[in-house]
Amino acid sequence: MVATPWTLLRLMDECENAEKASSSDEVFIPTTTIELLTSEECVSDILKERNCQNQDALKKRIYDEKCPAKIIFLILARAGKLDRIGQFLSNGFSDHHLPIELLWTREGYKFKSAKDSNWTAAPFGTGIDYNDVDYFIQKQWPFLAPIFEREFEYVLQQKIPLPLVKKGTPIVSGFSSVSEIEMHPAHVPEQTEHSMAMKKMELESEDQIKYVKKEMANVTSLRLLDHDHLVKAILACTRGQQALFFFPWAKGGDLYNFLKTNSTEGMAAIIWMLDQMVGLCSALSLLADKGYRHGDLKPANILLFPEKSGSCRLKITDVGLSKLHILATSRRLNGTTAKATTRRYSPPEFDLLFDDDGEPVEDSDDIKLSRKFDIWSLGCVFIEFLIWAKLGRQKYKEFDKSMKRDRRFWDSAREDLDIKVKERIQSLEDSIKDTPCDKAVQRILTLVLEQMLLVNSDDRTRASDIYKELKIIRDSYGECLQPRNVIDLPLGLTAEQAAESDHRQDGQGLPDGMDGTSRSAPEQSGTQNNGLSTTAVPSGNTAAMAYVSEALAPLPKRRNADGESDFATYRMYQSAKLLNQWTVSPDNEFAQKFFSKTTHPSPAYRGQLCDSCSKLRIWEPDATISGIMRDFGARASACNLCNLLYAVSQRIGLHEDHKLNCVRNGPTLNLNGHEGPPILSLFSDPAFNAHDLGSVQVGYPTLSPPESPERYRLFQEWLHVCDNEHSHRRDASPGGCAVPMPTRLIHVGESSEHLKDIKDSGFLRYLALSHCWGGSTSLSTLTSNIDKFRSEIPHEQLPLNFQEAIRVTRALEIPYLWIDSLCIIQDDPEDWRREATRMGQVFSNAYCTIAATSAATSNEGFLTPKLNSTLSATLETPGGSLLQISEFMEDCNRDVESAPLNTRGWVMQERALSRRTLHFTKTQVYWECGNGLHCERLFKLSNPQSALFADSDFPKAILKHYKGGRITLFQNLYERYSRLNFSYNSDRPVAILGLEKHLSAVLQTRGEFGVFEQYLARSLLWSRPENIFLNSITFKGDHHVPSWSWMAYEGPITYTNIPFDKVEWSTDCLLQYGEKTGTNIMRTVLKAVARDLKLDKLDMHDRVKLDEGSGFEPSNLRGVVLGKDKKRESRVQVHYVLLVTLPEDELEQAKVYVRVGVAWLLEHNIAMDGEDVVIY
């Protein structure tokens, strides 16, 4: 039988039928249909029907594995644009780019794709007009429904459809709704329940968005809690302004509706109730033991799941979403339903967050609730359970109605806070009779009233103890009870064993220790995850990319009782003076002196302004500029300021119909207020009296030509002021000691240069070049040419960076220059080793350092800026001064900190130890000395963390800080260094030797391998960031770096954020220098007391961070306790632990261990006794 040929009409019908097959409001085309419509037969038939050119080439391109275009083919076919497919695909456009967005600017169309989140040029060929692309964008969405595989968390773009074939009527509660849904079976893994509950939260405020980001981590971690009375989430994602959580569908509904609609059956109801109470309390005990609080326990959040026996099991849902529920109540979001139901079951301390009018008395960020919050709420649930089981459904409905009026389980006279549990609840005792099950009810009621519903949260009993009491009550009346199901807990523990373990659950929170601002990288390939993951159709389309830590800013998994991560709590202890933030201020004292000594041609007056801009009074301190981007564009040709504002609006990513708002903030105009980023700079012409302009910068927005006399005069003035006013230059004999000179220097001369051996030459003034080695250096000193170079270095063979450095040295009238590749013999290992250890000394003793900051290779050059904004506008003030406005160019993070040079490992030491540095960046030159960072346009720029690099006598500036500040600074320094790049990773411990020696001397402690003896515990408590694993470095020869040093690994580190003065540091770990190893080599080791650890699966996930990933069984790990929290009444003691293990090739009796990670453990995780060990 001959198959029916495919036609375009048939393809369109198939798409339409597939969309109509879904009874949900999600319009999508399943992957099964997509596979059918992109079969070779279908594609060939339709290309032939539409007479497309180069059909064989097109088919090859459509099925290209690396650059597929199956979905593009379907979108264009459905849009009736197949005649344009060749143009769409001619420039590498593929399914990996989908979805795309379109933006019109005066420069043309800009596109944003899944492959590149920035607005860029079109990812497809030319010759396609706006209508073609706009229609393509409209038609793309139904084809992009995600396929959920083995990951758990996702980020979806707002218009991406979910693969739902059915969706029931949503049940709305507060700011969320729950619907029964059914996923298309081809879009979920096999054996996944297609029927699920979808909880949708509309994220209408920044607070909601912030807390969804935080709680995502909780929900993920809680999936490891395998308890029969906890509902485990199947999938979580954000889609635009929505947060979506998917759970198993509870066919029995929730406990609240069950109690209202089901009649009791006497003793059977009580028996079942007792069983479920024990199970619910066991689940709450496990949650508390693992450091979690539910925060919204109520019958509506307890679901019924039918079992094969015909009974139902109660399970707690919404675990991990507590902060969102509390936030909804405190902010009075979406009406009163959520507020009333949450407050009904909330303890007295929660109600005190509201005033008499029901308004929150403090910001939701400051909500502080104990984990015993849940004990009160569960007691309220038990009361309602008892009413239903003992008094019947009708009495429960009457009670429910009365509680809707009164809302709470307790009374309070707010003026004297006389709080007591409602008398009507206590009167339940009157209904109790003298049967075995009634005695059980009596004991439960007494337990609830005397141990759970207590006004003072500290008086409430822990969940584990409530569980034990309930179990005793249940078992005491065993003759009334039927056989029960066993409650399974993680790692084979029964409920009894879990509750009998030494729970530490009444604390106010547990430190995470897992640093979320390290700005972690996405999870690397190969990392195992047993959740769900996604691929769009076809695989590789990132329209529905799997959730990674960068998508929702990575945050710690654990939360403290305040609802905030402990990382945030710990940061509060850090000095606000050490924020990593740049500020801009004018440096007019220097500017006025400089312009008084030199002539600088004033730029041409650019006073062409439109009527709107002529009315602006930017010279006033509180001036503002606002307007629609499109209007600026319309006036740009006739107005210099509108032209500038339009260009700036484009650069910051505004759309044509967006409004630009900026506010005067001293010498800058900042976007959307004083706290926003600066986008425009203000200058006062030095030729005029600028007193009426306030704090604007004296000078010009334009830069002098790259090698002009004016530019070199500025460099000389910076040096002159620094020499004579700041005293930052190196003295010839500080303290009467001779300054050690480099072994060799380049004598630049007037027209030629040669190497000079420096022996007894005394003090010499020289510059040092800091540069990237990227690319071929073309010329370097070798044993074969050093004699020749002593006579003359062939200038024309030097890389461009070296030639330009020589020109700068001559222009500044300095006789000598040091360049590593010319002053160190590159093929002489002994010379290299000796000079490498002296590298810090070379830069510290240099008169000044030339930093080729913008150049990624030796041949790139650095003198000419690559970016130079020429747009400016000039306004005349009422006082006759000229105020010039230009684009803000002083982006220090871009120009200096993130520039190619400062990503290299060797350069940090060079920069830190240099007394002064001229940074040649891609926009302008920055001058860095002990007085701060200054730019060529004469602004002064300040950043507390970067100030350490400007210290002309590094690191004495650290002494201005107390102990906590000193620790923060050296930890920031090492964290930053660990993120830098090396051509040879084995250089990692060498390239920082000089810096480490200086730090040790100033801190007056011994330091080695990134560890300071005085701060030993904090130095050792480093770890990898989330989702990044370290790789150990292989060192050659007898060079050894111990396992407890981060220098032994490749990859970034972060330090545990531990509050200052809140920890008792242990003496169980000491540094031992010159310890003889098994090979008779003297090494620095740790001598410590190692203890056995008790760790389960969740502990390994939440409390342990292994340096190089998984591969260690908990039984193989031992712990060295470095410190523990000081005792506080309301907090568990967290122990800060170094994890060690015996290497596979190590003899057991030798007891020589290696570090494998760090952990944040509780007392019950750690054995009391330990033994002395050595750690290499």
From TrEMBL:
Sorted alphabetically, which keywords does the UniProt record give? Kinase, Transferase
Q: Where is this region: Disordered?
A: 498-538
Coiled coil (residue ranges): none
Q: InterPro entries in the record, alphabetically? A: HET, Kinase-like_dom_sf, Prot_kinase_dom, Ser/Thr_kinase_AS
Molecular function, one GO term: ATP binding
PROSITE patterns with a match to the protein in the record: PROTEIN_KINASE_DOM (PS50011), PROTEIN_KINASE_ST (PS00108)
Q: Which positions fall inside the Protein kinase domain?
A: 165-472
Task: Cite the record's Polar residues compositional bias ranges.
Answer: 517-538
Protein name in UniProt? Serine threonine kinase
Q: What organism is recorded for this protein?
A: Fusarium acutatum
